[in-house]
Amino acid sequence: GGTMSLLRNAARRAASQRAPAAGWLRALSEAAPSGPEASMTSKLEQSFGSGTKAQVEDVSGGCGSAYNVSVESPFFGGMNKVA
Fold this sequence. Notes:
Elements: H1 2-16, H2 22-30, H3 36-48, E1 53-58, E2 67-72
Antiparallel strand pairs: 1-2
């Protein structure tokens, strides 16, 4: 369902962005998600363990039906891109 799709998208994004630009990390640290975004970010970071950085952005115009998710985690180290 939705959670597996969210994780697959996170894995795809993480695999394609092994070393994110410094600007992405700065934006991640400066943007404090709230509501559902904060909850999803927290759950992703806890699920993937230590060293994980997650970013969740509502791209649905505020209704919460679509999110852009990025996850950078040692969990994905050595993995190929997910198709």
